[in-house]
Amino acid sequence: MPGVVASQVTFRRSLLRWYGENARKLPWRDIPNPWRILVSEIMLQQTRVEAALPYYDRFLQRFPDARSFASASEPEVLAIWSGLGYYARARNLQRAARLIETSFPSDFGFIRALPGVGPYTAAAVASIGFGLPHAAVDGNVLRVLARVTGDEGDIADSATRQRIAGLAEELLDRARPGEFNQAMMELGATICVPRNPRCLVCPVALHCEARKQGRQNELPVKRPKGAPTAIECAVIIIRRRDRVLLKQRPADSARMAGFWELPAPEDAPGVPVLREAGEFQHTIVNTRYRVRVLVAAPVRIVHLASAAAGAQWVPQDELEHIPLTTITRKALRHIS
Questions:
Q1: Is residue 81 within 8 Å of residue 256, measured between CB atoms?
Q2: Rounded to an integer, what distance in angstroms lies between the CA atom of residue 236 and that of residue 27?
Protein backbone atom coordinates (compact mmCIF):
# COMPACT_ATOMS: atom_id res chain seq x y z
CA MET A 1 0.00 0.00 0.00
CA PRO A 2 1.44 3.41 -0.96
CA GLY A 3 2.47 5.56 1.96
CA VAL A 4 3.83 2.76 4.14
CA VAL A 5 7.43 1.75 4.88
CA ALA A 6 7.39 -1.59 6.67
CA SER A 7 10.41 -1.14 8.93
CA GLN A 8 11.15 2.51 9.52
CA VAL A 9 13.95 1.83 12.00
CA THR A 10 15.80 -0.40 9.53
CA PHE A 11 15.19 2.10 6.74
CA ARG A 12 16.72 4.95 8.76
CA ARG A 13 19.64 2.86 9.94
CA SER A 14 20.49 1.61 6.44
CA LEU A 15 20.18 5.08 4.92
CA LEU A 16 22.31 6.84 7.54
CA ARG A 17 25.01 4.17 7.43
CA TRP A 18 25.23 4.54 3.65
CA TYR A 19 25.34 8.33 3.90
CA GLY A 20 28.12 8.25 6.46
CA GLU A 21 30.24 6.17 4.08
CA ASN A 22 29.32 7.78 0.75
CA ALA A 23 28.34 11.43 1.23
CA ARG A 24 29.88 13.79 -1.31
CA LYS A 25 32.32 16.37 0.01
CA LEU A 26 30.43 19.65 -0.36
CA PRO A 27 31.60 22.92 1.20
CA TRP A 28 28.35 23.69 3.03
CA ARG A 29 28.67 20.34 4.80
CA ASP A 30 32.12 21.17 6.18
CA ILE A 31 30.82 23.93 8.47
CA PRO A 32 27.08 23.53 9.26
CA ASN A 33 26.63 27.25 9.88
CA PRO A 34 23.03 28.49 9.38
CA TRP A 35 24.10 31.40 7.14
CA ARG A 36 26.20 29.13 4.94
CA ILE A 37 23.35 26.61 4.77
CA LEU A 38 20.88 29.35 3.79
CA VAL A 39 23.21 30.61 1.04
CA SER A 40 23.69 27.10 -0.35
CA GLU A 41 19.97 26.29 -0.31
CA ILE A 42 19.02 29.57 -2.03
CA MET A 43 21.69 28.98 -4.69
CA LEU A 44 20.54 25.40 -5.23
CA GLN A 45 17.01 26.54 -6.03
CA GLN A 46 16.87 26.02 -9.81
CA THR A 47 20.65 25.38 -10.03
CA ARG A 48 22.60 22.11 -10.11
CA VAL A 49 25.21 21.45 -7.40
CA GLU A 50 28.10 21.40 -9.90
CA ALA A 51 27.09 24.75 -11.36
CA ALA A 52 26.58 26.39 -7.94
CA LEU A 53 29.90 25.33 -6.36
CA PRO A 54 32.20 28.07 -7.79
CA TYR A 55 29.59 30.74 -7.07
CA TYR A 56 29.17 29.52 -3.50
CA ASP A 57 32.89 29.67 -2.74
CA ARG A 58 33.28 33.11 -4.32
CA PHE A 59 30.17 34.43 -2.56
CA LEU A 60 31.27 33.39 0.92
CA GLN A 61 34.76 34.74 0.42
CA ARG A 62 33.15 38.13 -0.21
CA PHE A 63 30.19 37.79 2.19
CA PRO A 64 31.12 35.40 5.04
CA ASP A 65 28.15 36.45 7.18
CA ALA A 66 24.71 37.99 6.93
CA ARG A 67 25.86 41.41 8.13
CA SER A 68 28.40 41.82 5.30
CA PHE A 69 25.83 40.88 2.66
CA ALA A 70 23.10 43.03 4.21
CA SER A 71 25.13 46.18 3.55
CA ALA A 72 26.20 45.34 -0.03
CA SER A 73 25.06 47.62 -2.86
CA GLU A 74 22.61 46.26 -5.41
CA PRO A 75 25.15 46.33 -8.31
CA GLU A 76 27.51 44.34 -6.08
CA VAL A 77 24.76 41.83 -5.26
CA LEU A 78 23.80 41.36 -8.91
CA ALA A 79 27.41 41.18 -10.11
CA ILE A 80 28.39 38.38 -7.72
CA TRP A 81 25.22 36.46 -8.67
CA SER A 82 25.69 37.09 -12.39
CA GLY A 83 25.51 33.82 -14.32
CA LEU A 84 23.47 31.90 -11.73
CA GLY A 85 20.17 33.20 -13.08
CA TYR A 86 16.86 33.70 -11.23
CA TYR A 87 18.14 36.95 -9.75
CA ALA A 88 15.16 37.42 -7.46
CA ARG A 89 16.96 34.83 -5.31
CA ALA A 90 19.87 37.22 -4.73
CA ARG A 91 17.58 40.12 -3.85
CA ASN A 92 15.54 37.93 -1.49
CA LEU A 93 18.71 36.61 0.13
CA GLN A 94 19.82 40.17 0.85
CA ARG A 95 16.42 40.99 2.35
CA ALA A 96 16.79 37.89 4.52
CA ALA A 97 20.32 38.95 5.53
CA ARG A 98 18.97 42.30 6.70
CA LEU A 99 16.47 40.51 8.93
CA ILE A 100 19.15 38.20 10.32
CA GLU A 101 22.04 40.70 10.59
CA THR A 102 24.07 39.61 13.65
CA SER A 103 21.78 36.88 15.04
CA PHE A 104 20.11 34.00 13.20
CA PRO A 105 17.21 32.83 15.42
CA SER A 106 16.76 29.07 15.73
CA ASP A 107 13.02 29.37 15.23
CA PHE A 108 11.30 27.55 12.37
CA GLY A 109 8.57 30.17 12.04
CA PHE A 110 11.19 32.93 11.68
CA ILE A 111 13.15 30.93 9.08
CA ARG A 112 10.01 30.10 7.10
CA ALA A 113 9.03 33.79 6.99
CA LEU A 114 12.35 34.91 5.48
CA PRO A 115 12.05 36.31 1.91
CA GLY A 116 12.54 33.64 -0.74
CA VAL A 117 12.29 30.77 1.76
CA GLY A 118 9.67 28.10 1.10
CA PRO A 119 8.78 24.99 3.09
CA TYR A 120 11.67 22.90 1.76
CA THR A 121 14.35 25.58 2.26
CA ALA A 122 13.06 26.38 5.76
CA ALA A 123 13.18 22.70 6.74
CA ALA A 124 16.67 22.27 5.31
CA VAL A 125 18.07 25.32 7.15
CA ALA A 126 16.24 24.44 10.38
CA SER A 127 17.34 20.80 10.42
CA ILE A 128 20.91 21.12 9.10
CA GLY A 129 21.75 24.46 10.69
CA PHE A 130 19.93 24.04 14.03
CA GLY A 131 19.05 20.35 14.41
CA LEU A 132 15.29 21.05 14.40
CA PRO A 133 13.05 18.08 13.48
CA HIS A 134 11.56 19.14 10.14
CA ALA A 135 11.59 16.96 7.01
CA ALA A 136 13.08 18.68 3.95
CA VAL A 137 11.19 17.51 0.88
CA ASP A 138 12.71 18.50 -2.48
CA GLY A 139 12.39 16.85 -5.87
CA ASN A 140 14.95 14.20 -4.94
CA VAL A 141 13.06 13.20 -1.80
CA LEU A 142 9.72 13.14 -3.64
CA ARG A 143 11.21 10.78 -6.22
CA VAL A 144 12.80 8.48 -3.62
CA LEU A 145 9.64 8.13 -1.55
CA ALA A 146 7.33 7.76 -4.56
CA ARG A 147 9.43 4.75 -5.58
CA VAL A 148 9.89 3.36 -2.07
CA THR A 149 6.13 3.38 -1.48
CA GLY A 150 5.04 2.63 -5.05
CA ASP A 151 2.95 5.82 -5.08
CA GLU A 152 1.25 6.16 -8.50
CA GLY A 153 0.03 9.71 -8.01
CA ASP A 154 1.13 12.44 -10.40
CA ILE A 155 4.18 14.02 -8.74
CA ALA A 156 3.08 17.45 -9.97
CA ASP A 157 -0.26 17.12 -8.18
CA SER A 158 -0.45 18.93 -4.82
CA ALA A 159 -2.31 16.05 -3.13
CA THR A 160 0.44 13.60 -4.12
CA ARG A 161 3.16 15.93 -2.90
CA GLN A 162 1.37 16.50 0.42
CA ARG A 163 0.92 12.75 0.89
CA ILE A 164 4.61 12.10 0.31
CA ALA A 165 5.62 15.06 2.48
CA GLY A 166 3.57 13.54 5.30
CA LEU A 167 5.45 10.28 4.93
CA ALA A 168 8.77 12.14 4.99
CA GLU A 169 7.80 13.66 8.34
CA GLU A 170 6.87 10.22 9.63
CA LEU A 171 10.17 8.70 8.50
CA LEU A 172 12.38 11.56 9.76
CA ASP A 173 15.02 10.58 12.29
CA ARG A 174 14.28 13.13 14.99
CA ALA A 175 17.57 12.51 16.75
CA ARG A 176 19.56 13.32 13.59
CA PRO A 177 17.21 15.36 11.37
CA GLY A 178 19.86 17.33 9.45
CA GLU A 179 21.88 14.24 8.61
CA PHE A 180 18.74 12.28 7.68
CA ASN A 181 17.47 15.02 5.36
CA GLN A 182 20.85 15.28 3.64
CA ALA A 183 20.98 11.49 3.29
CA MET A 184 17.57 11.42 1.60
CA MET A 185 18.56 14.20 -0.80
CA GLU A 186 21.92 12.55 -1.48
CA LEU A 187 20.23 9.26 -2.26
CA GLY A 188 18.00 10.95 -4.83
CA ALA A 189 20.87 12.92 -6.35
CA THR A 190 23.33 10.05 -6.74
CA ILE A 191 21.51 6.68 -6.62
CA CYS A 192 17.74 7.05 -7.06
CA VAL A 193 18.20 9.29 -10.11
CA PRO A 194 15.37 10.11 -12.56
CA ARG A 195 16.48 7.69 -15.30
CA ASN A 196 18.01 4.27 -14.76
CA PRO A 197 18.30 4.39 -10.96
CA ARG A 198 21.22 2.42 -9.50
CA CYS A 199 19.07 -0.04 -7.58
CA LEU A 200 21.84 -2.63 -7.19
CA VAL A 201 23.79 -0.31 -4.88
CA CYS A 202 20.83 1.38 -3.19
CA PRO A 203 20.97 1.10 0.62
CA VAL A 204 17.17 0.93 0.90
CA ALA A 205 16.42 -1.30 -2.11
CA LEU A 206 14.88 -3.94 0.16
CA HIS A 207 12.26 -1.39 1.25
CA CYS A 208 11.39 -0.24 -2.28
CA GLU A 209 8.03 -1.22 -3.78
CA ALA A 210 8.94 0.09 -7.23
CA ARG A 211 12.07 -2.11 -7.24
CA LYS A 212 10.07 -5.18 -6.15
CA GLN A 213 7.59 -4.61 -8.98
CA GLY A 214 10.25 -3.75 -11.57
CA ARG A 215 8.70 -0.29 -12.01
CA GLN A 216 11.58 1.92 -10.89
CA ASN A 217 11.76 3.55 -14.33
CA GLU A 218 8.00 4.22 -14.37
CA LEU A 219 7.75 6.03 -11.06
CA PRO A 220 7.20 8.73 -10.09
CA VAL A 221 4.44 9.55 -12.55
CA LYS A 222 4.98 12.92 -14.24
CA ARG A 223 2.87 15.00 -16.57
CA PRO A 224 4.55 15.49 -19.95
CA LYS A 225 6.09 18.93 -20.44
CA GLY A 226 4.90 21.21 -23.22
CA ALA A 227 7.11 21.77 -26.24
CA PRO A 228 9.65 24.58 -25.70
CA THR A 229 9.07 27.93 -27.38
CA ALA A 230 11.78 28.83 -29.94
CA ILE A 231 12.78 32.47 -30.39
CA GLU A 232 15.41 33.88 -32.76
CA CYS A 233 17.06 37.18 -31.89
CA ALA A 234 20.29 39.13 -32.31
CA VAL A 235 22.59 41.39 -30.31
CA ILE A 236 25.12 43.84 -31.68
CA ILE A 237 28.55 44.53 -30.21
CA ILE A 238 29.44 48.19 -30.74
CA ARG A 239 32.91 49.24 -29.61
CA ARG A 240 34.78 52.51 -29.38
CA ARG A 241 38.43 52.01 -28.55
CA ASP A 242 38.41 49.93 -25.31
CA ARG A 243 34.72 50.50 -24.53
CA VAL A 244 31.55 48.55 -25.30
CA LEU A 245 28.10 50.06 -25.65
CA LEU A 246 25.64 48.58 -23.11
CA LYS A 247 22.15 49.48 -21.98
CA GLN A 248 20.70 48.91 -18.52
CA ARG A 249 17.38 47.26 -17.89
CA PRO A 250 15.00 49.59 -16.02
CA ALA A 251 14.38 49.15 -12.30
CA ASP A 252 10.76 48.13 -12.97
CA SER A 253 11.70 45.45 -15.51
CA ALA A 254 9.89 42.16 -14.94
CA ARG A 255 13.13 40.20 -15.36
CA MET A 256 16.72 40.99 -14.38
CA ALA A 257 16.03 44.58 -13.39
CA GLY A 258 19.21 46.66 -13.20
CA PHE A 259 21.28 44.30 -15.37
CA TRP A 260 23.34 45.52 -18.32
CA GLU A 261 23.01 44.03 -21.78
CA LEU A 262 24.09 44.48 -25.37
CA PRO A 263 21.66 46.39 -27.58
CA ALA A 264 19.64 44.67 -30.27
CA PRO A 265 20.29 45.84 -33.87
CA GLU A 266 17.00 47.76 -33.84
CA ASP A 267 18.21 49.74 -30.81
CA ALA A 268 20.97 51.27 -32.91
CA PRO A 269 19.50 51.93 -36.36
CA GLY A 270 22.00 52.88 -39.03
CA VAL A 271 25.04 51.37 -37.29
CA PRO A 272 26.91 49.40 -39.97
CA VAL A 273 27.41 45.69 -39.28
CA LEU A 274 30.98 44.60 -39.98
CA ARG A 275 30.48 40.86 -39.57
CA GLU A 276 28.52 38.11 -37.87
CA ALA A 277 30.70 36.63 -35.11
CA GLY A 278 28.62 33.52 -34.52
CA GLU A 279 25.52 32.30 -32.77
CA PHE A 280 24.56 30.31 -29.68
CA GLN A 281 21.55 28.88 -27.90
CA HIS A 282 20.30 29.97 -24.50
CA THR A 283 17.40 28.40 -22.60
CA ILE A 284 15.28 30.10 -19.95
CA VAL A 285 12.71 27.76 -18.39
CA ASN A 286 10.68 26.57 -21.42
CA THR A 287 11.95 29.14 -23.94
CA ARG A 288 14.89 28.40 -26.20
CA TYR A 289 16.66 31.40 -27.75
CA ARG A 290 18.92 31.25 -30.81
CA VAL A 291 21.05 34.36 -30.60
CA ARG A 292 23.07 35.79 -33.48
CA VAL A 293 26.08 37.89 -32.48
CA LEU A 294 26.75 40.86 -34.76
CA VAL A 295 29.83 43.07 -34.61
CA ALA A 296 29.50 46.70 -35.71
CA ALA A 297 32.08 48.62 -37.68
CA PRO A 298 33.95 51.19 -35.52
CA VAL A 299 31.78 54.24 -34.92
CA ARG A 300 32.22 57.53 -33.06
CA ILE A 301 28.57 58.44 -32.56
CA VAL A 302 25.64 56.10 -32.16
CA HIS A 303 22.06 57.32 -32.49
CA LEU A 304 20.01 55.12 -30.21
CA ALA A 305 16.37 54.20 -30.45
CA SER A 306 14.20 54.95 -27.41
CA ALA A 307 14.48 51.30 -26.33
CA ALA A 308 18.19 51.87 -25.65
CA ALA A 309 17.88 55.21 -23.87
CA GLY A 310 20.38 55.47 -21.06
CA ALA A 311 22.98 53.30 -22.79
CA GLN A 312 26.59 53.88 -21.80
CA TRP A 313 30.09 53.17 -23.03
CA VAL A 314 31.56 50.73 -20.50
CA PRO A 315 35.32 50.00 -20.34
CA GLN A 316 35.99 46.37 -21.23
CA ASP A 317 38.09 45.83 -18.10
CA GLU A 318 35.05 46.73 -15.96
CA LEU A 319 32.70 44.20 -17.52
CA GLU A 320 33.43 41.51 -14.94
CA HIS A 321 32.52 43.89 -12.12
CA ILE A 322 29.00 44.82 -13.25
CA PRO A 323 25.87 42.67 -13.53
CA LEU A 324 25.57 41.45 -17.11
CA THR A 325 22.78 39.30 -18.52
CA THR A 326 23.85 35.76 -19.34
CA ILE A 327 23.10 36.31 -23.02
CA THR A 328 25.45 39.31 -22.99
CA ARG A 329 28.22 37.32 -21.29
CA LYS A 330 27.88 34.53 -23.85
CA ALA A 331 27.85 37.00 -26.75
CA LEU A 332 30.99 38.83 -25.58
CA ARG A 333 32.91 35.56 -25.65
CA HIS A 334 32.67 35.70 -29.43
CA ILE A 335 35.09 38.61 -29.60
CA SER A 336 38.65 38.95 -28.29
A1: no
A2: 40
Kindly state the greatest CA–CA separation across the chain. Answer: 75
What is the architecture of the domain spanning 229-332? Alpha-Beta Complex (3.90)
Residues 108-132 pLDDT 10s: 999 999 999 999 999 999 999 999 9
Question: Whose CA is closest to 269, among 232, 247, 302, 241?
Answer: 302
Nearest to 247 by CA among 232, 266, 222: 266
Sign of torsion over alpha carbons 79, 84, 89, 95: negative
**Beta strand extents in the chain (DSSP E only):** 229-237, 239-240, 243-248, 260-261, 273-284, 287-296, 312-315
Tally of CB atoms within 10 A around 270: 7
Does the active-site annotation cover 41? yes
pLDDT, tens digit (0-9, with 9 covering 90-100), for 214-273: 999 999 998 877 788 999 999 999 998 889 999 998 877 778 888 899 999 998 888 899
Model pLDDT for residues 17-58, shown as the tens digit of each residue: 999 999 999 999 987 799 999 999 999 998 999 999 999 999
Active-site pick, 41, 186, 209, 261: 41
Alpha-carbon distance values, 77 to 189, 253, 328 (Å)? 29, 17, 18
**8-213 under CATH 1.10.340.30, yes or no:** yes
